[in-house]
Amino acid sequence: METGRIFNIQKCSIRDGRGMRTSVFFKGCGLHCLWCANPEGISFEPEITLNPQNCIACNACMQHCPTGASRLEDPNTPVFERDKCGRCGLCADLCPTEARKLNGQEYTVDQLFKRIYQDRFYFQHSGGGVTFTGGEALMQPQFLLAICKKCREYGINVAIETCGCGDYDKFAPCLDYIDFIYFDLKHMDSDQHLKWTGQRNEHILENLRRISAHGNEIIVRTPVIPGINDSEENIQATAKFILPLVSVQKYELLAYHKLGVNKYKLLGKPYLLEDVTEPTAEHMFHLVDVANEVLAPAGKKCFYNLNNDYDE
Amino acid sequence: MASERVEFLKERLRDTNPSISVERARLVTQFYRIPSIESPIARKAHMLEYLLKNMTIFINPQSIFVGDHGERYRSVPAYPEWGSNWILEDIDTFDTRSTDTLYWDKPEDKQELIDICKQWRGRGFREVIDSHLSEEQKQAALDGLITIGSRIVSTASHMPEYGVIFEKGFAKMIEEIQEKLDGIEHYDYITQEQKDTWEGMIITLKAAIEFAHRYVKLAREMAETETDPKRKADLLRIAETCERVPELPPRTFYEAMQFFWFIHLIYQIENAGHNHSIGRFDQFMYPYFIHDIENGIATEDDIVEMIQCMLIKWTEIFELRDHIEAEAYAGFPMWTNVTIGGIDSNGHDACNRLTYLFLEAADGAETTQPAISFRFNKKIDEAIFRRALKLTQKGLGQPAFFNDEINIPRVLANGCNDIREARDYAIEGCVEAQVPGKTDFRPVAGFINILKVLELAMHDGVDPKTGRQFGPNTGTMEEMDSMEKFMKAYEIQLAYIIDYHLKAYGICSALHSQICPTVFASCMVDGCIEKGRILQKDGARYSSTGTFISGVANAADSLAAIDQVVFQKKLMTLAELTKILDSNYAGREDVHQMLLNKVVHFGNDEDLVDEYCRRVVTFCALENQAHKDSRFGQYELILLNQTYNIWQGRCVGATPDGRMDGEPLANNASPSNGMDRNGPTAVGNSIGKMDTLMVPKGVLVNHKFDPAVAKGEKGLEMLETFVRGYCEAGGQHVQINVVDTATLRDAQKHPENYKHLMVRVAGYSAFFVELDPRVQENIIGRTEHGSCCG
After folding, report:
1. Interface of A with B in 196-215 (CB under 8 A)
2. Tens of pLDDT along B658-691?
3. Which domain holds residue B525?
4. How many folded domains does chain B comprise?
5. Are residues A126 and B721, on separate chains, in Cβ contact within 8 Å?
6. Which residues, at least 6 apart from A84, have a Cβ–Cβ distance to it below 8 Å?
7. Measuring CA to CA, which residue among B531, B745, B532, B763 is closest to residue B643?
8. Average pLDDT over chain B, rounded to whole?
9. Mean pLDDT of B548-556
10. Does a structural domain hold residue B714?
11. Averaged over B536-557, what is the pLDDT?
């Protein structure tokens, strides 16, 4: 049976598309952006997070870990040696405080759909539905197709949030079942893109062109990271790129935030952008103006949503 | 948005320390010293007449409505005839306690009240009831297993159909009652009681008219010396109005409001008690509103100001309570409830311009009383619904939303067989749907602590806190070899305690009918005049009594935990689990944490635990309905516990839901504190699966939203979606606090900056800074529903 690897299901999301939505986070991504707020979604493999603050030193993990990766040392400090971990998830299963947690679980289409369908009453009025995000949903195309078809069968609106780094020919069949797409463009300079995300951007831009040609409604988004992609040139270049794309009418700027920083610690990974600060609202609105100089003549629009109002 | 007058009245309310009024106690004592062997009904009617004739009256500066509860502004009378022992015990704490502190106006007031209460010692209603209750019954209340309601207050909870009363006026009602008296053809013990009742009714209605006429005189006197021409006009209008109402039908919105206030106030003067609700304000006041607007008598601004003045008056009334209730019901709630919105008796959307203006007025007045209930249904006027949600967004904790699709069938299933009447329901008290003017519903048979009952089931009927065998023997934990067996043991204990509780309350309730008739209030409910019987003797068309259950989510969580840990995963035996709980997890923090984190909890849309919840709730509902109250009405279940969850939680040891010894129970029908981890929609779905149609009188659910999520246009859409979806899922009621934890923490540190911060505690709003610190903690502990940004 087709299964997908999911690391989180979040109800009542209001910023990932129209209405009240359930966000499903697919595990694994082709990029590894340094600012990623969901670092537990980058690797395709299940991962254990360890939050030592929650540990009560009950020792259940140490007693049962088959490889000795999870244990206590001197005498009550929880330790996790990632290299030794066999990713069986037993420690997370046994941990009573959720100090150790497993990120990445297999779902069948029916199992996942049951969770999505739970909030149908809340989707109906608001025009909400499900948003497949991640990680990168397009990188599990077969499962994505199956769950999208199921949602269509029940009339549930489907949106995806993507960084566009999948194989077009593989995910193309999904596009017929997707009502709405948020497409991230991180940087227009391919070398810079490689530097900050680990990949060049040519195939991403190509994917955006092809999806747009397919006809899905798209909002392009750029997470504005000060000192990395917040130059007027970059925003201008992005706006220029989307200008001819028929399916893109709107361009949204998102402000960099540090809400995900703690997750890096839990994953035992370094956070390399400690020194970057969040952009000011003033700067954000300035960049909006810059983009709109390009877009407005074509009737397209760039926006930044500061006050939790409707998307413009 | 508030006029200068309204701002003045608001400030005065906020800046006046509530004080104790001794006058009523003095007058009642004087009255009962006058020897008489007349019937109890006549005696009570004459008592009210005596009070209305002799109590101090005054007209507050800038106030346009007259009638106060005590001898001073914002003073609360004592009711020694309802119980004086507790007053003597608590009297030194009134002005020192941390919540609902009450001040003495003069030092000699306190001594006078002591002297009065000493005369009543052992002779008030509470003491009479207590002499009829067994020691064991009283102990059960002290042990936190049950409470036995309505022992120091009347059966209260009156909700007349004001529109009908306005059309008649008291003069016409007196005529109708006189016709009844004149029609008696044969005198016997039955007709004699009717005669007593009808005569008593006439005494009280005439006394009410005379009471109004006292204000005519006072207002005219004050007008004579008033130098401000505007205020002089106010006073003359008061005089003119009180000359007309309640004797004759009101002609204007203003007269109708004053008429309304006399009835509402006299309920409070007649008896100790609360829960008097207003009914469908936007419906029964609408004809007067239209009349005034069309004839140029009042503008919409005038209407809003009148409503705001009335909102403030509602908030001025409160009652004297003991230290337990002052903590449990902190914030001076009177559970006065006003209903707006909904559909009309023909099934059409009933929202009108007055619905909208009422919301506008509430927005500007920012009072804690009354609780505003907004009836929601699919036909609702969208703009007015959104106006109501904007009030919610503001963080006033108002209004609460009620689902017509659940409440109308529930009213129909509870004795009413007319769909038009059922559609005309209004909310009384916290969440109880009733047909106004036709129902005598008593909300408080008491609170049954069903988590404590689970503790009994885990100890073969013994209360581990006291070592006393309280429930029946239902088997030791060693004998429980299946979940079903344990479930049966729990149900036997539940059935036993419900029966035990209703018997105890029955003693109390039957005594009400003999010694505490509410004569004036009986005039206002359809059926009483017709039958010549007071409310306490089944005078109303529909009579029923509510029973609260407390600790619902904890009980469901505990059952699900036992099922998962003991019977499914077999991690330990039930006996071992019980032992760990009895030690309050001593040395077993791992088990405590496992119960908190690794088993499913109610409020997360998890079928296993939601089904336990449904099963327990349905069982309790059916057990209650199998009993009849002292008027042969049905006992009906309500899922709420106010803030009793704290006090009743203190009486329960550690439980399988991961609760520690003494921790609070879950708030009302909401999930256990902090256990709803999948957002508000999951809570709604869990509540919906409970089968709310099986719960006759309501399922009270609180939600707290972070302002960051609820603000703005998108936040409004989110709140709307939530309420609509929640109703679709099967919710009966929901109230939403838009407040963040940081704000509440700061309010604890700097109460002086947060005098205006209001929170929904449970079926009512209160100022946060006036609450007991433990209640504050409890509110902060309710899971704050945020939303993720992807």
Report:
1. none
2. 999 999 999 899 999 778 888 889 999 999 999 9
3. 127-148+445-665
4. 1
5. yes
6. A67, A68, A69
7. B763
8. 92
9. 96
10. no
11. 95
The reply to whether B672 falls in a domain is no
Q: Which two tokens stand for residue B97?
A: 């306690």
Q: Distance (Å, rounded) from C-alpha B125 to C-alpha A41?
A: 67
Q: Does residue B576 lie in a domain region?
A: yes
For chain A, how many residues are written? 312
Dmax of chain B from CA atoms?
85
pTM of model > 0.80: yes
CA–CA separation, B61 and B238 (whole Å): 13
Contacts of A119 in chain B (CB under 8 A): 681, 685, 725
DSSP assignment string, B458-507: TTTTEETTTTEE-S-----GGG--SHHHHHHHHHHHHHHHHHHHHHHHHH
- If contacts are CB pairs under 8 Å, which of residues 707-766 in chain B contact chain A? 708-709, 711-715, 717-718, 720-722, 724-726, 728-729
Residue B547 DSSP class: E
Residue B407 lies in a domain: no
Report CB contact under 8 Å: B597, A98.
yes
Q: Does A125 contact B713 at a Cβ distance shorter than 8 Å?
A: no
What distances in angstroms separate CA A29 from CA A44, A108, A178, A257, one per listed residue? 7, 20, 19, 20
Best CA proximity match to A134, nearest among A258, A266, A24:
A24
Bridge partners (DSSP) of residue B765 are B760
Number of DSSP helices (H) and strands (E) in chain B, helices first: 33, 19
Question: In angstroms, rounded to a whole number, what is the distance separating the alpha carbons of residues A242 and A188?
Answer: 11
Domains and CATH numbers, chain A: 3-44+105-303 (3.20.20.70), 47-103 (3.30.70.20)
Give CA angle at B670 (B664, B672), nearest 5°: 40
* pLDDT computed for residue B763 by the predictor: 43
Q: How many helices (H) and strands (E) does chain A have?
A: 11, 13
- Is B681 in contact with A307 (Cβ distance < 8 A)? no
